Amino acid sequence: MKMHLTTLLAIVSLAAPVAASETISHGYSAFGDLKYGPDFTHFDYANPNAPQGGTMTQRQLYGTPTFDSLNNFIIKGDYAPEVSVHMYDSLMTSAYDEPDAVYGLIAESIEYPDDLSYVAFNMRPEARFHDGEPITAQDVVFTVNALQTEGHPFYRNALADITNVEAESDTRVRFDLSPDAGRTFPSTIAGLPVLPEHFYDEETPFDDSWMTIPVGSGPYLIDTVDAPRTIKFCKDPDYWATDLPVNVGRNNFECFAYEYFADETVGLEAFAAGEYTMRVEYRSSFWATAYDFPAAQAGQVKQILLPEGQPANAQGMWFNLRRPAFQDIRVRRALDLAFNFAWTNATVFYDAYKRNDSFFENTDMQATGVPEGAELALLEEFRDQLPPEIFTETVFVPQEGSERPRDRAALREAGNLLDAAGWTVGSDGKRRNEAGKVLTVDIPDDSQSFNRVMAPYVENLQSIGVDATFNVIDPSAASERRQQFDFDMSLTAWIVQAVPGTELRGFYGSKAADEEGSNNLTGLADPVVDALIGRVANASTREDLVVAAQALDRVLRSKIIWVGGWHSGNHRVALWDMFGMPDQPAPYDLHRGVDFWWFDEAKYDALVDAGALTDKFR
Fold this sequence. Notes:
618 residues, alpha+beta, 6-stranded antiparallel beta sheet, 4-stranded mixed beta sheet, 27 strands, disordered N terminus
């Protein structure tokens, strides 16, 4: 499933106290000490002696099917996510061996009081944009104001707790924060890309899509772009931050190139033919059966599993509760019962996955059993707004299904629920309500590869009288329909932060429910959910965060706002054997972690000499 923009990096900090109520530090962590002290020279997972050069070629990031814009910060157009990865520096940057820590990049230090009523960043005077202009505090102010007023709804929701931003000098910027901002919010601010105010004009307005090469401040420049097929980035020879500790052993490739494929089979064939050299494999069937081409059999292409240190993605088929039929939880439960995960996993996925039942899957923030202890005490505050079964029944876990394509018991239960909800089967086999309206379920998507999962699901729905369809449509049309909430169910995955915070409002909060283009696909608007998100964001300790997240997870799961998807716990990576990587790869971000790999010229020469690859990646 696709991942959409979206997730701002969750970052956080510690430091050396300046006064009893104020901290100044080289980094930030919400709940604990920083692993790296102020004099660190490089991250432990970085190789400071990594060779430089060569080209890393991949297929498009996150499975994004197309792009027609290089403006990544607004709702218009289909942006290329690689632009954000390579072209923009932020005030601070994540350490990928810590779940919630950031260290100075554009900013050399961060200041904040104990109550986090404000946060200030002291910026490096040597920081420069690609065109040589200095990066100033006014650029930070411009960035925040633009994102808050004209940016993608994700940014508008994520930055809502900034009450004021001010450039106190050319190299110092201060943010005043609302009391609800929470301890992780400084990380959100620190991870924002800093945009050049002087770049935006009538030809490249901030609020429109365009294909002009943007000005950034990161390590790479756009070298070539051929939308929607390819985009290539090569090193900025004058990059200002090459020698900073956070960049030592990083950005080792001379260039990164990305090939876009709308068809997964064509993309794999191109990889097998050596048209690109690294591939994150999203399809378990390909992983199990398709890597039998000559280069793989000869050991020239390797398949490796890299452990996923992050929480599993919130992946599933999301219900659009704006649809009247879906406002009845019995209907949603019936449609959930119709998905036979056990058969799908065995037959389609080669038993590669586990079912997602939690919105914080594979973490200690996942609710279990019946509420007790601190979680129960928190939920008691909302008892009169919650269904009584929240307190007496175990947390909702979807049925796994059976080994047969149709789980007759589950479908029979689903049919009974639909009957009870007033959707009865007519003479034509279709379910209608009292007004004669047919129960329809339209599931649009831009990937043909999901047919293998969705066709059996649709057949199960049709067998109980639901007029269900899965439609593969043009990527641009799919993006537009998602932004306008023009679907009954949406196949989508969201990245979940190791330390969640205010970004949850964009996915489940009331203010985002009716904001076009927001990540709240379901249209969920619930005061208890809003309050629990606030408790997560404002947790003062890791223990409090876990309790609040468990309570939030329990309440969300009780509402059945999705048909939960699947996760594996590993990244499946196929690569031509021409790269070096750290002995202990960074566990918390595969795509950024690749920045610490390097080009192994001896391995590459062996592939070229064997005739496996042409000499075009040096």
